[in-house]
């Protein structure tokens, strides 16, 4: 045993001096890269803005042909597919309209409309998308977004009790008749806002978050600016008509995308068709017709007043493709739903989602110089996919570029290359390749430490 120990000691000492000059390396088999199917959440979503009594929701819209007045606002749901999943480096604040259809072949009659892919923000159809119009209760998409961001950041929780002020209880339009003596949880408030577009709950939440409705509206405008919503000025948090309270189909698409993409749990509320509050005494009925009869609906919000007419932000997902369709200033409720359907059908009928790779897929090996390991696996840093015309995926090719002369130390997640996809010679997607683990730089100390670790491992096996 002593002879074997001495043999190992001499061998390891020699290895230490040898490695200090040439480096220490480990080898791995080259992995094979493969992509897997990635499907989005296809939960259905419903949202409507209807006035309800203390005990029961009135889920019918009343419209006067001479002077449109609405006692309830219906939310809409639309089917969307996912187009490019993190395929092109786009900021969340902008939409890519480079390939949008703009000549209105669908003959839409509304004041403004847009169809986008939810994940990358690619615009598929544009009709007066920057026209500044009154959004009515579609305003609440921004209100809901700020509530969800507060929840996700830990500022508030779903179980927090929210009081009702005199100001909140006095709101008109769609409401659940909150009383100043009662408190609802954030969860219940969200349910009332998403399902029946309750103005009283909306104001109560605004006051709870920022101390006053006006302070909350300032936050809404600040967030709109951060998202690149340059057509938007909010005057209130609920959408009741007010001079200067305007936005565009384009901006509604931006905030709808931000909500759905980064706070997917909101569909737990926007997909509700029927529910209740106050121990079953207050019935909630979502009057969004698309929820009931459009496959794949995931939300999102309706809005209507006698001045704004009929608006809708509708979302849906089918076969991995997620779409958001926005209709503004439809002449009737039926028209807004019909034209939202047209947009969604257009997207689903003409486009498909093609998954190209998933986060952590191994593409190849990156050689490392002066490191404790000679190579690491180069992996895809995020999901990558593309929305293309149907039956147009035959000629997609991929090109792997792994950088040369990568020197240690290397940190996990460090960019080591790029994976590019082309269709008929045109680049359609690019994603970074990153290191799958840390690789320290070798030194006499690290070499000695590594060799003695291997040495003791060998001794244990003896």
Description:
The chain is an alpha+beta fold and 462 residues long. The chain folds into 2 domains: 2-38 and 356-461, Peptidoglycan synthesis regulatory factor (PBP3), Domain 2, CATH 2.60.410.10; 112-354, Beta-lactamase (3-Layer(aba) Sandwich), CATH 3.40.710. The chain is built from 11 helices and 17 strands. The strands form 5 sheets. The protein has a 6-stranded mixed β-sheet, with no helix packed on it. A 5-stranded antiparallel β-sheet has the order 2-1-9-8-7, with helices on both faces. Strands 3-4 form a two-stranded antiparallel sheet. Helix 2 crosses helix 5 and helix 2 runs parallel beside helix 7. The termini are close together. Mean pLDDT is 81; it is low at 19-92.
CATH fold node name of the largest domain:
Beta-lactamase
Strand content: 15-25%
Sequence of secondary-structure elements: HEEHEHEHHHHHEEHEEEHEEEEEEEEH
* CATH architecture label of the largest domain: 3-Layer(aba) Sandwich
**For the terminal residues, how far apart are their CA atoms?**
9 Å
The CATH class name of the largest domain reads Alpha Beta
Please give the share of residues in helix.
Answer: 25-40%
Into how many domains do the coordinates divide?
2
**Oligomerization category of the chains in this entry:** single chain
Number of strands: 17
**Major sheet size, sense and barrel closure:** 6 strands, mixed
Q: What would you call the shape?
A: globular
């Amino acid at each position: 045993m002593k002879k074997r120990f001495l043999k190992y000691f001499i061998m390891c000492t020699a290895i230490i001096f040898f490695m200090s000059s040439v480096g220490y390396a480990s080898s791995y088999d080259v992995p094979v890269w493969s992509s897997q199917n990635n499907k989005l959440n296809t939960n259905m979503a419903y949202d409507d803005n209807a006035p309800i009594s203390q005990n029961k929701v009135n889920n019918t819209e009343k419209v006067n042909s001479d002077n449109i007045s609405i006692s309830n606002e219906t939310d809409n749901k639309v089917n969307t597919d996912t187009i490019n999943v993190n395929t092109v480096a786009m900021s969340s604040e902008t939409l890519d309209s480079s390939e949008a259809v703009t000549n209105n072949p669908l003959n839409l009659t509304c004041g403004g409309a847009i169809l986008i892919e939810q994940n990358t923000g690619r615009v598929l159809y544009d009709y007066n998308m920057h026209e500044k119009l009154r959004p009515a209760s579609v305003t609440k998409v921004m209100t809901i977004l700020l509530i969800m961001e507060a929840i996700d950041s830990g500022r508030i929780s779903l179980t927090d009790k929210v009081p009702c002020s005199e100001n909140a209880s006095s709101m008109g339009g769609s409401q659940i008749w909150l009383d100043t003596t009662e408190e609802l949880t954030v969860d219940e408030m969200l349910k009332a806002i998403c399902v029946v577009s309750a103005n009283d709950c909306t104001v109560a939440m605004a006051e709870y978050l920022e101390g006053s409705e006006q302070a909350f509206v300032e936050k809404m405008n600040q967030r709109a600016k951060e998202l690149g919503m340059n057509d938007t000025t909010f005057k209130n948090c609920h959408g009741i008509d007010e001079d200067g309270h305007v936005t565009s189909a384009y901006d509604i698409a931006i905030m709808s995308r931000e909500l759905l993409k980064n706070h997917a749990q909101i569909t737990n509320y926007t997909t509700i068709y029927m529910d209740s509050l106050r121990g079953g005494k207050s019935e909630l009925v979502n009057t969004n017709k698309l929820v009931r009869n459009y496959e794949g609906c995931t939300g999102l919000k309706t809005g209507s007043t006698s001045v704004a007419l009929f608006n809708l932000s509708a979302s849906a997902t089918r076969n991995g493709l997620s779409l958001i369709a926005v209709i503004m200033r439809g002449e009737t409720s039926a028209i807004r739903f019909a034209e939202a359907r047209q947009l969604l059908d257009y997207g689903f009928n003409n486009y498909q989602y093609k998954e190209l790779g998933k986060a952590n897929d191994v593409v190849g090996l990156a050689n490392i110089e002066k490191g404790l390991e000679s190579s690491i696996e180069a992996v895809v840093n995020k999901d990558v996919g593309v929305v293309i015309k149907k039956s147009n995926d035959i000629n997609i090719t991929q090109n792997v570029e792994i950088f040369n002369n990568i020197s240690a130390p290397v940190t996990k997640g460090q960019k080591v290359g790029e994976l590019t996809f082309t269709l008929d010679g045109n680049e359609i997607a690019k994603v970074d390749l990153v290191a799958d683990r840390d690789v320290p730089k070798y030194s006499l100390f690290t070499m000695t430490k590594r060799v003695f670790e291997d040495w003791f491992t060998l001794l244990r096996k003896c």
